[in-house]
């Protein structure tokens, strides 16, 4: 009962823990997006990423072939603003500045320096009253400049010309010399520019490549995990070959999960290497990585389920429930694959939070089904082994239960930490720690697989982990009789009766 309650415990936290968003990319694309009205301004969020300080503080320190080598920067590529024809028609064709759009780049800790907070005003754009005090320029975003840092927050202005409907920003590359979480906003203060849209893209780069700062350490994690899976695979292969005569079906399943984990981590590592060098996710490599990940997740859960059912240890087959196990696996794979594709192949601006929830909820519910089924099956298997007094296998399953319980408790604790981490850091100021959250799940999954490999490692004593009918594993169904002299089948007893006759007391009992 304790195992079942532990399974129910995990369901609630799993439903919440699955609501983890996708990783940001280094190229932010804008596809004819609208500006949003807030207070007296119209703004568009152009992106946010953690950026490390440039290794060189001026362009002359860099390589002459690549002046931005070793530098962090934000580059504006063909960013174009399109206003309505109605708005453009109100302007004079000869007017050189007929509408202002500002790009504001700021570090998250300087967020209070944008708008009139320091002037005790809710305004974002300068009003005539504030302009009269000399605190800001009318028609522009209010920026609080400090004497020791006059360049930041960075303010880049772009003016519409005459009565033209479009204007493209001048090519601009902003070098980042301080480590921090940077936000980019495009802002409009002129109410005549209502309905303006934006298209183009911005490229964000760290000193060592295009990987966003919050996920850059994961490249090393995937490299380390690849080596860890290779090591586990080599040890498992040696045992597999050494005791190949005592191999059971379960060992092939474990081998497949190890191989998939090895492939997944290797493909993930090379995907991140390519992403870091080009700034773009290679479609084919990412698709393979996502598929390997989905297959491994599915087979890992199926492995836990069939082990909990006692497959190959307490029973030789799954019997009539095989089709249900396979059906759950297929549905889980499809749901996971859809979620992974959206997370890793979609642009960060391509889908909303509601879309993500629609994809996350089925995966969370299926995970809950797996948890319930695993713990209920484990409870029945332990109960059966206790009844049969099979102490070797009972000890094996107790160790497995303890490992599974520890992993569930660690998962619950980590999900609690993750919720606290995300809840107390809405602006991602602790972005340099964010990589440890996905890294933990990979390490935990590997640890649980390693435990299964240790417990079910091939050996010269297969009776410890394999199903053997003659040991009385299924005595209820096979009609096996236990006597003081050993194990005898029903056929053997009947043969003895014919050859030697029945004992006197049995004869008398039959006559009666």
UniProtKB/TrEMBL annotation:
Residues 1-25 form the signal peptide. Residues 217-462 form the GOST seven transmembrane domain. Keywords: Membrane, Receptor, Signal, Transmembrane, Transmembrane helix. Its main location: membrane. It comes from Arabidopsis thaliana x Arabidopsis arenosa. The keyword Membrane applies. It is a multi-pass membrane protein. It holds the Pfam family GOST_TM. GO terms for cellular component: Golgi apparatus; membrane. This is Lung seven transmembrane receptor-like. The chain crosses the membrane at residues 221-238, 250-270, 285-306, 318-335, 355-379, 400-421, 433-457. It is found in: Membrane.
């Amino acid at each position: 009962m304790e195992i079942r309650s532990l399974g129910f415990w995990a369901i609630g936290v799993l439903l919440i823990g699955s609501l983890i968003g996708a990783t940001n990319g280094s190229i932010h694309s804008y596809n004819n997006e609208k500006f949003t009205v807030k207070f007296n301004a119209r703004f568009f969020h152009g992106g946010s990423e953690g950026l490390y300080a440039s290794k060189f503080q001026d362009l002359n320190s860099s390589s002459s072939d690549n002046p931005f080598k070793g530098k962090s920067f934000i580059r504006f590529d063909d960013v174009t603003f399109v206003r309505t024809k109605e708005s453009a028609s109100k302007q004079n064709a000869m007017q050189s500045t007929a509408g202002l759009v500002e790009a504001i780049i700021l570090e998250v800790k300087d967020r209070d320096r944008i708008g009139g907070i320091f002037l005790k005003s809710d305004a974002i754009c300068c009003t005539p009253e504030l302009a009269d005090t000399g605190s800001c320029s009318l028609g522009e975003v209010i920026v609080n400049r400090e004497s020791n840092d006059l360049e930041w927050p960075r303010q880049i202005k772009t003016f519409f010309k005459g009565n033209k409907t479009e204007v493209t920003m001048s090519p601009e590359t902003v070098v980042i010399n301080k480590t921090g979480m940077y936000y980019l906003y495009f802002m409009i203060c002129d109410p005549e520019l209502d309905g303006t849209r934006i298209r183009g893209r911005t490229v964000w780069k760290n000193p060592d490549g295009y990987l966003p700062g919050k996920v850059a350490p994961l490249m090393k994690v995937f490299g380390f995990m690849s080596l860890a899976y290779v090591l586990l695979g080599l040890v498992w292969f040696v045992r597999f070959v050494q005791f190949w005569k005592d191999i059971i079906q379960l060992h092939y399943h474990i081998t497949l999960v190890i191989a998939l984990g090895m492939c997944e981590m290797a493909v993930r590592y090379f995907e991140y290497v390519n992403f870091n060098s080009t700034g773009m996710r290679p479609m084919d490599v990412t698709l393979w990585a996502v598929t390997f990940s989905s297959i491994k997740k599915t087979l890992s859960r199926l492995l836990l389920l069939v082990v909990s059912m006692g497959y190959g240890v307490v029973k030789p087959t799954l019997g009539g429930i095989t089709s249900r196990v396979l059906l759950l696996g297929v549905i889980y794979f499809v749901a996971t694959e859809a979620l992974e594709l959206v997370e890793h192949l979609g642009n960060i601006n391509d889908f909303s939070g509601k879309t993500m929830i629609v994809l996350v909820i089925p995966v969370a519910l299926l995970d809950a089904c797996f948890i319930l089924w695993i713990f209920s099956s484990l409870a029945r298997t332990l109960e059966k082994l206790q009844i049969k007094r099979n102490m070797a296998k009972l000890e094996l399953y107790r160790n497995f239960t303890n490992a599974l319980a520890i992993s569930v408790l660690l998962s619950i604790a980590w999900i609690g930490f993750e919720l606290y981490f995300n809840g107390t850091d809405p602006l991602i100021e602790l972005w340099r720690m964010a990589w440890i959250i996905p890294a933990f799940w990979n390490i935990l999954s590997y640890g649980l697989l390693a435990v299964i490999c240790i417990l079910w490692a091939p050996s010269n004593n297969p009776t410890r982990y394999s199903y053997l009918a003659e040991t009385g594993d299924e005595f209820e169904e096979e009609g096996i009789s236990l006597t003081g002299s050993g194990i005898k089948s029903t056929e053997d007893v009947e043969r003895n009766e014919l050859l030697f006759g029945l004992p006197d007391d049995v004869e008398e009992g039959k006559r009666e």
